[in-house]
Every structure is written in structure tokens, then in C-alpha cells.
Amino acid sequence: MSDTDPLVVFTPSGKRGHFPKGTPVLTAARQLGVDLDSVCGGRGICSKCQITPGYGEFAKHGVTVQPDALSEWNKVEARYDEKRGLKPGRRLGCQAQVMGDVVIDVPPESQVHRQVVRKAASARVIEMDPATRLYFVEVDEPDMHEPTGDLERLARALKDQWEIPQIRADLTLLTKLQPVLRKGKFQVTVALNKGHRDDVARVTEIWPGLHEGGLYGLAIDLGSTTVAAHLTDLETGEVKASSGIMNPQIRFGEDLMSRVSYAMMNPGGDREMTRAVRDAINTLAEEIAKEAEIDASLIVETVFVCNPVMHHLLLGIDPVELGQAPFALATSESLTLDAAALELSAINPRARVFVLPCIAGHVGADAAAVALSEEPGKSEDLALIVDVGTNAEILLGDKSRVLACSSPTGPAFEGAQISSGQRAAPGAIEAIRIDPETKEPRFRVIGCEKWSDEDGFWEETATTGITGICGSGIIEAVAELRIAGLMDESGLIGSAAQTGTERCVPEGRTNAYLIHDASAEGGPRITVTQGDIRAIQLAKSALYAGARLLMDERGVDKVDRVVLAGAFGAHISAKHAMVLGMIPDVPLEKVTSAGNAAGTGARIALCNVAARAEIEKTVRQITKVETAIEPKFQEHFVAANAIPHKTDPFPELAKVVSLPNPSFNTKGEDADGGGRRRRRRG
Q1: Which pLDDT score is estimated for 4?
Q2: pLDDT (tens digit, 9 = 90+) per residue, 597-618?
Q3: pTM, two decimal places
């Protein structure tokens, strides 16, 4: 293999390499350690190695993919498609051969180690007042002497028996109205939807007799990396099932600006991304209904929260305006739509969709949902709420004023752009501790509660193996390197001579820290490289700089408490987040987790129609700070590159952890002296 051979980039892992023309995609995946399944030995029988190639210009990856980047469709694929069917755009990885530079997405169902989407529903008491409700009515039978239509008599029954002044029904409902009325002997149950701005109730479904099969809605958090959904009982508010899938748009770009760039550089690219995410939502709806063992047609309402780029791509709006100042939204208002308008075919055909309002061009409906869930505007003390993801949403406020911004952290916190990184899946290292004296690591992986130095760990992880390191794991690993004195304030890892441990191994002109080596058994060699640390530094610097901008706007140097929202809030320790310098210095007991606050906000809006009016009012009162045009953002960003920070003091952190102060600059410090100092202070 040489640099002149075609470049193959796999998403969502981000792993890449050059391979000779004619190399099967499955072979390239195996050589790079990409998580692509296959059980038939590459004979095109099992279909587990399905992949989706991306075509066009991918600025993020520095690749332009031509239509002939893969070999032509062959007889094996054609036979499989004829017998069992392949989704449009899919290829079999064992059959498709690399012919040119290509970006290849490995869908979740083709991954051996399925991702664990960690956006579970948080327990929350919600006052039930849904927009969609069930009504049982007795309808007058038709009378030749008083000729009226069935719909008109249904409307009269609802007015007389439930004081519903007016209803409307679309053609698809009218086509089933008469048979249902007669089957129920003119006793029926109807589902009526009436939003907070609607004057007329819509009939979304009708059943003969008394319907006791339930009524459901979906609260969907449409993120840049994952799509998480909560199937919610619209009568009780109970979450019946939660599920999630990878956002397939990752193959067009891991971060938002990469996707905007893809739309700019590839005519029709926005429509490609819209189609991909709508298909994913339909798949997710089918899967979650199956998991809960309900008929998907009972899902009659959906609420979406998402960042502005996802918002536009969901709605089928070209997001290019969001890629350049003044970052204009097509609309910032909330939207109420028919599910059919978004091609959501897996749920009830007459289902209604509510999309929360956006706050600003880079601060979306997901931030609005966090505000609805966490209510910073009702806080007595000054609260900083951070929803960490590929694009971090940050809120700062109390009763007097609430500010909001977003910060482009990128996908490093989620395991992408990390040498041994992977999504959260069984076998991924999710927590790590490094002994300051011995410099030896111990770790815990997803799917096993034991630490690696506990009895039974290796037996319990024999099936999954140790496959890589996920977002929470890499955050803790970098923080632990700093605590153990193996990495200096600038983020530089010392050599074995400087640190006194052979786990610090040379890698080019820098060093890496070896966590786990299973290469002798054909497994992975998991390290934290200098490149990994730089990726985390960039991500955490953007996050901290965004928070500091909001603090500047409020004229404060400290906050009273920090709330970590999203998957990270539940899976990283406050101490490690603070050692890394992700968040401002506060007492550790003042750092709390809100779980999936955006998802909770979506559920509140789904279950309480008044909350929709409330968040519309709240959004208008929030002060928006645009990080992309704030001159001080870069200044804060550069200072935040140091770990934890170049200039900001962290007195509360100093009370619980003593950070060594080595310097591993290659221009030189006495290595032994540096080693002694770190051992003494560790």
C-alpha cells in the first residue's frame, strides 16, 4: 500500500487508510480494525457486511468521491437483492471493491458491536395535558328525514357530549369513517389533536367501539451523531420504550459545518441528507414500536428537538445560510406539521408533528428543550447548563436573565477522531484510572461492571473483548494522564525516560500512553496518542470558551453551579471534567447531571400542550451570544488549551486533587528531575 493508492475513509469510526485498487471493502475494514460484521466468509450470503458509500466532495475528509469509486454492481449482489432485497444505495462490503478514493458508512446493523445510545429517558413528573386525546362518543344513526353526513353527525356528537366546538378530518380519515361507524354500531372512539395555536381539533384516528389499545407519541432528540426517541403513553406520560440509532448523515460529515459544506459543494447534497435522516427516523419508529409491542399506527404525534442544521435538514431546507454570517434561519418559530410532510410513513399517516422553536442561527430547538427541562430562568442561583455533544449548547442564567450560545466542540467527545476511538458499545473502555505511583492503568468497559484489576473481569469480557475507547473513556484517560504526571499542562505526553514508565511509548516525534495491548492475540492495541490529546484539547477549549463568553456577558468570573446534560452528564465524573478544564471551577458537589435534558424537554412538550406556549415565550426572552463572531472567543479558546487552563484559577479543584507540574518540552528539562518531582507530588 502507498499514498498513491485510493484512500478509504470509514464513518462513523473515522478510520482511514490507502488500499490498492480491487481491494474488497470488507478486507479494507478488517485491516483498519473497522467494526464491520460478516459471518459467511465473504461469499455474499449473510448480508451482514452491508455498507453505504458516499459520493461527492467531502471537505472534512479532504476527499472527492467519484461515481466509479467502487466496482460495479456484480452478480452476487444482484442475486442477493433479488432474493432478499438491499436498501437503496447499499452495497455488500465483501463484493464491492475499492477503485478510487471513497467515504464508506457502516450502518448500525452492520456493526458487530452495536452502539449503546445512552440517551435514556430521565424520570420526570410531567403534568399531563397532551395535544392529542381520546374521546368515546355515541353518534346518531343516519335518518332519511334529516339528511346529514356521517362526519357532521360525528362533529355534533363531540360537541354535545364533550363540548368540542369544531372538528376537521382529511380525506384519508373520511375514507374509513363510514365502515368504522357501522362496525361500532355508531359508537366510536376518536383521537383528536388540538395544538396550542389551533382553533379547530383534527381527527387523527377513529376506532369502532371503545378503544383501549392506547395512544402514543414520540419525543425525538435529533442530534448530529445520534437520533434518540422515547415512545410515550399520551394518557399516562409513561415512557414505554427508548431507543436510538446513529444519524446516517455522519457519512456526509461528522460535524455540522462539514454537512453544510457538503450541501454547498454537492448539488442536491441537502436533499440526500434529508432523505437519509427521514429514512432513519422511520426505521427508528418501526423498531421502537416493535420493542414496545404496539401497532405503529397508534403513534399519533411526534415532537422534535434538534440543532439548527439538523432542523433545516429534517424539514428539507437547504442549510447553506447557516454556514456563513449572519447565520440566518429560514424560521426560528415553532412548527406544527403533518407527519406526511416529513415523509414519516412508519407512524400513523395522520400523525401531527411539533418542532420546538430555535433560539438563534447556531442555538437550536435542542437548547430550547434544555431550557424547558432545566428552567434556568427560575433558578435562584447562577446556573451554567452544558449539553455536551458534537455541537455543545450552553445556557447561563438565573431569575434575572438567561443567556445562550452554542460551541463547535466537534465529535471527539463522542469517540470520533480518536486513534482507538469508537462509539459507546460493549467492549469499549468507558472509565479509566492511572495509579500516580506505578503509572499502571485499570479500566472498566461497557457491558461489564467490574474493573480490569478485579477477579472475573477478563472472563466476563471474553465475548466482547476490549475493542476501543469511547467518549467518556477518552475524557477520563486524558484527565488521568494529567493527574498521574504523565502529561504536562500543555498536553504533552512525556517519554518513558521522563515519566519512569514503559507505558509511554514513542510514536513518531511524540509519545503515546499504552492502555491495553492485545495485538499478540490478534486484538487491538489501545493507546492515547498526542493527536488524541490535541483533539480533546480543541473540543474542551471550544466548550470552555463558550461558557466564558456567557460569563463575560453577565460580568462574572464564577458560577454557582454546573449542570451537565446529555449522555456525558451521566457518564463522566465531575472531577475529570474539571481536571480537563471542560467546565469552570466550582465545588464538585455543585456539579450535577441532568441526563438527557433535551429529550426530557421534548417529552414535556409532547405531554403538555401549555409547555409549547411557555417555551415560545421563554425563547424570546433569552439573550443569544454568537460565538462565531465574538472577538474574545479566540482569546478564551487559546487560554483554555492548557489543562485545566492557562490563566483561570481552579481553587475548588485544588482542594480535591493536587496536579503535578512537569514540563515535557523536547527542548529540554532534566528528565530524571522531572520524574522525581512527579513521583513526589503524585
Answers
A1: 86
A2: 899 999 999 999 999 999 999 9
A3: 0.79
Report which residue type is found at 5: D
Domain ranges in the chain are 7-110, 115-208, 216-355, 374-409+536-680, 412-530
472-473-474 Cα angle (round to 5): 95
Q: How confident is the model at residue 666 (pLDDT cuts 50, 70, 90)?
A: low
Place of cell 446529555: 566
What SS3 state is found at 395? Answer: strand
The CATH architecture one would assign to domain 7-110 is: Roll (3.10)
Give me the CATH topology for the region 115-208.
Ubiquitin-like (UB roll) (3.10.20)
- In sequence order, what DSSP letters do the residues of 625-666 get, joined into one string? --GGG-HHHHHHHHHTTSSS-SSS--HHHHTT---------T
Sequence-distant (6+) residues with CB within 8 A of 216 are 231, 232, 233, 234, 240, 292, 294, 298, 299, 300
What pLDDT, on the 0 to 100 scale, is given for residue 19? Answer: 94
Confidence of residue 388 (pLDDT cuts 50, 70, 90): confident
What does the pLDDT read at residue 269? Answer: 93
The CATH H-level superfamily of 216-355 is Domain of unknown function (DUF4445) (3.30.420.480)
The SS3 assignment for 544 reads: helix
CB atoms within 10 A of CB 654: 11
Phi first, then psi: what are they for 44, rounded to 5°? Answer: 75, 30
Domains 7-110 and 115-208 fall in the same CATH topology: yes
pLDDT, averaged across the chain: 89
Write out the three cell numbers for 313: 435538514
pLDDT at 669 exceeding the cut of 50: no
pLDDT of residue 38: 73
What count of other Cβ atoms lies within 10 Å of the Cβ of residue 456?
10
Q: Which residues contact 366 (CB under 8 A, 6 or more apart)?
A: 221, 223, 305, 306, 307, 387, 393, 598
Cβ 681 vs Cβ 520: under 8 Å = no
In what helix (H) or strand (E) does residue 600 lie, and over which residues does it extend? helix 597-607
- Amino acid sitting at position 412: A
Region for 566 from its dihedrals, namely left if φ exceeds 0, alpha if ψ lies in -120 to 50, beta otherwise: left
Place of cell 463547535: 408
Q: Is the pLDDT of residue 532 over 90?
A: yes
Q: What percent of the chain clears pLDDT 70, i.e. is strictly above it?
A: 94
Instruction: Tell me the mean pLDDT in the region 162-187.
Output: 95
Length of the chain: 682
E strand or H helix at 591, and its extent?
Answer: strand 591-595
Local structure of residue 93 (DSSP, 8 states): T
Residue 246 has pLDDT above 90, yes or no: no
Asked whether the predicted pLDDT for residue 431 surpasses 70, the reply is yes
Task: Phi first, then psi: give them for residue 80, nearest 5 degrees.
Answer: -65, -45
Pairing of strands 510-517, 504-507: antiparallel
Coarse DSSP helix, strand, coil percentages of the chain, rounded to the nearest 5 percent: 35, 25, 40
Closest CA to 126 of 607, 586, 449: 607
The Cα 643–Cα 645 span in angstroms is 5
